[in-house]
Write a structure and sequence with these properties.
With 205 residues, the chain is mainly beta. It is 7% helix and 34% strand. It contains one helix and 14 strands; from the N terminus they run H-E-E-E-E-E-E-E-E-E-E-E-E-E-E. Strands 3, 5, 6, 8, 9, 10 and 12 form a seven-stranded antiparallel sheet that branches. A five-stranded antiparallel sheet has the order 4-1-14-7-11, with no helix packed on it. A two-stranded antiparallel ribbon has the order 2-13. It is rod-shaped and about 105 Å long. The relative contact order is 0.20.
Length: 205
């Protein structure tokens, strides 16, 4: 059906019920599930006209949402630019590659979670330790100062590069830090290509 229209009736014209009911019924039929996009002006339905939760997954056609419409503002990557002497303790990542929502605290070397959700966390470091006999090291993820996950131990390898990677659920305002353990004192090598600390939001649900 095209645009709804009615014929103007001149003053003094005698009308019957059909003259009134017909255009009213036309409008009712259009509204009761028959309103087509052809009858809507461009930009007639704006976001403020939609109730919260009105557009459900079932109402979105496959392929209707393209990658251009999807945005993840929570992505972060940093690395240790300078060497760090350590046996076991927190890795002091000091150089940010990118931090799209400014959630990394470079003073305390921690990433504060902006929203509830599942986050992928990856970290690595390389020891400047040529003699492998006493090496036994691993990298660990700490949340709010407590251990939650560790990567595998690397033993008796020259210049070992332990790493850790996992996805965990975090709530807004929790903070993530990266620690390293080794059974002997050593030095973490600085440089953009030899160590990293990365976090990104995978999903809020």
């Amino acid at each position: 059906m095209g645009l709804i229209s009615v014929t103007n009736i001149a003053d003094g014209t005698v009308i019957d019920a059909n003259d009134v009911n017909s255009p009213i019924n036309t409008i009712v039929n259009e509204v009761n599930g028959n309103l087509s996009e052809a009858n809507l002006d461009n930009s007639a339905v704006t976001t403020d006209k939609l109730a919260d939760g009105a557009v459900t997954t079932a109402k979105i056609s496959n392929g209707a949402v393209t990658t251009a419409k999807i945005s993840n503002p929570y992505k972060f990557s940093a690395y240790k630019a300078s060497n760090q002497s350590i046996t076991s303790g927190k890795i002091l990542y000091d150089t940010v590659r990118y931090d799209t929502n400014n959630n990394f605290d470079s003073t305390n070397n921690r990433y504060t979670v902006p929203v509830n959700g599942y986050y992928n966390i990856h970290a690595s470091a390389q020891w400047l330790q040529a003699t492998p006999a006493n090496v036994d090291c691993s990298i660990r993820i700490y949340v709010d100062g407590s251990f939650v996950f560790k990567g595998g131990n690397i033993k008796t390898v020259a210049y070992p590069q332990p790493e850790v990677s996992t996805t965990i659920y975090l709530t807004a305002s929790q903070y993530v830090e990266i620690y390293i353990t080794n059974n002997v004192a050593g030095t973490i090598e600085g440089g953009t290509g030899v160590n990293t600390f990365e976090i990104y939001l995978v999903s809020e649900t």
